[in-house]
Write a structure and sequence with these properties.
Pfam families: DUF1289
Largest sheet: none
Organism: Massilia rubra
Helix content: 25-40%
Protein name: DUF1289 domain-containing protein
Shape: globular
InterPro entries: DUF1289
Length: 70
């Protein structure tokens, strides 16, 4: 049996478990140059709900992340 649809009747797109691309750097600010997440988002990723993660995914993809060569 398939998973129930999310709110609004649409299921979020399939995504990797994490946006991490192993290019971790927050040298100049609080945003990782590889995945685009804030330090807080990286630290709390495993405890975030699917809906919270989706909000982050939408934002970072719109900003051109994840980036392997930065």
């Amino acid at each position: 049996m398939s998973a129930p649809p999310s709110e609004g009747g649409m299921k979020p797109p399939e995504r990797p478990d994490t946006p991490c691309v192993a290019v971790c750097s927050t040298t100049f600010d609080e945003i990782c140059r590889g995945c685009g997440r804030s330090v807080v988002e990286v630290a709390h990723w495993v405890s975030m709900s699917d809906a919270e993660k989706e909000v982050v995914w939408v934002r970072i993809l719109a900003q051109g992340y994840p980036r392997r060569n930065t």
